Amino acid sequence: MNRTTQTKRTTIYDLAELAGTSASAVSAVLNGNWKKRRISAKLADKITKLAEEQGYALNMQASVLRRERSKIIGMIVPKYDNRYFGSIVEQFETLARERGLFPIITCTRRDPALEVEAARAMLSYQVDCLIATGATDPDRIVDLCAAAGVRTINLDLPGARAPSVISDNYGGALELTRRVLANCEKEYGEKTPLLFVGGRGTDHNTMERVRGFRDAHAEAGVTVDETLMLTCGYAPEKAESAMQQLAERLSPLPRGMFVNSTISLEGVMRWIRRSGHYADRVPQLGCFDWDPFVAMLGDHIEMVRQDVPKMLEAVFGIIDSGATDITVVQVPPIVEKIG
Q1: Closest by alpha carbon to 336, among 311, 301, 294, 310?
Q2: CA within 20 to 30 Å of 35's CA: 14, 157, 274, 335, which one?
Q3: Using CA atoms, how far apart are residues 254 and 170, in angstroms rounded to an integer?
Q4: Do the domains 72-162 and 169-305 sit in the same CATH topology, yes or no?
Q5: Residue 62: its pLDDT value, please?
Q6: Dihedrals φ, ψ of 267, to 5°?
Q7: In degrees rounded to 5, what are phi and psi of residue 4?
């Protein structure tokens, strides 16, 4: 039986010996810090070529040193497990590749520390641009990138220090609330305030949706009940817990509700089925999010579909134009009946 001997992996010490220099100099070149170390361009080019010839693990980064641009574009995204963010990722990859760019994406789970860690890691890969999607602190990410000379564009949630592309959260929520209120009046013959479930009360999108929710109530001559404003976060478990706590204080619950995402809707539906609270009457629902599987819930739901294709077109329009103005582009969402 023949044995295959595993080839020894090239190290920076091997490269240093081949280049006739120190390991620290090799490391500085491969990490892109050679100018700060006052290493000559000739030596940097020699080390870069040796790294590529030897198949060194960081040859992708090293080759960037010979180009003005890496043609790598990064994106951080808070979640993978809903259709909205999944669609953003898929279309981001498509549009990036159409432009000859290599996309890299990572999920930060709405964790500010992970967002910063991910941004730093992408900077180490010499990204030309970073798209901060749904970031909890987009301005901090912009500051990190700006220090490295890398531009940032905010998507889904806006920031104050870079261009942003978001949905028209106010307009979408206004129309969605109008429809649910009208459905409740038609179905039950009365005007009553809706329950608001999900989202973080401190983020821009939720605040704008709450504003649209309130204005639609005012138009209909219905007073918002503050005890029914459950901005409890996006996680299904939080929505489920908030519903349970409300039911312990108030019964029966409202016959109509505005749910702030399909993630929150998962928790709402779980609680409804577990508790049996609406066993005798199906609530009228509105969800600021979209998923075709929600149609299986019945024809008593309205949904807002965020226009992901137009949002990504706007993002790449900013990239292609080289615009640096700190503007907020609001893309109108689509409100549609399910079922």
Answers
A1: 301
A2: 14
A3: 23
A4: yes
A5: 44
A6: -70, -40
A7: -100, 125
The span from the CA of 25 to the CA of 178, in Å, is: 65
- C-alpha 141/C-alpha 123 separation (Å) is 11
- Identify the CA nearest to 315 among candidates 303, 300, 327, 299: 327
* Pairwise CA distance, residues 133 & 155, whole Å: 5
- When comparing pLDDT for 339 and 61, which is higher? 339
- Nearby residues of 48 by Cβ (< 8 Å), 6 or more positions away: 29, 62, 63, 65, 66
Please report the pLDDT score of residue 245 as a whole number. 97
Name the 3-class secondary structure at 32: coil
Strand-pairing partners, residue 336, are 303
Q: Which CATH class for the 169-305 domain?
A: alpha beta
Q: What is the mean pLDDT of residues 257-275?
A: 95
How far from the centroid of its chain's Cα atoms is residue 263's Cα?
14
Tokens encoding 337: 């009946």
Question: What class is the 72-162 domain?
Answer: alpha beta
Read off the amino acid at residue 52. Answer: E
Contact 158, 326 (CB under 8 A): no
Q: What is the sign of the dihedral through the CA atoms of 312, 317, 320 and 324? A: negative
Sorted by where each begins, the domain ranges of the chain are 12-64, 72-162, 169-305
Tokens describing residue 131: 């798209």
Is 50 exceeded by the pLDDT of residue 55? yes
How many CA atoms, within 13 angstroms, populate the side-chain half-sphere of residue 143?
7
Tell which residue, 183, 132, 202, 163, has the closest CA to residue 299.
Answer: 183
Asked whether the beta carbons of 89 and 82 are under 8 A apart, the reply is no
- For 12-64, CATH gives 1.10.260
CA distance 181 to 230: 18
Q: And the tokens for 76?
A: 């951080």
- Structural tokens at position 293: 């599987």
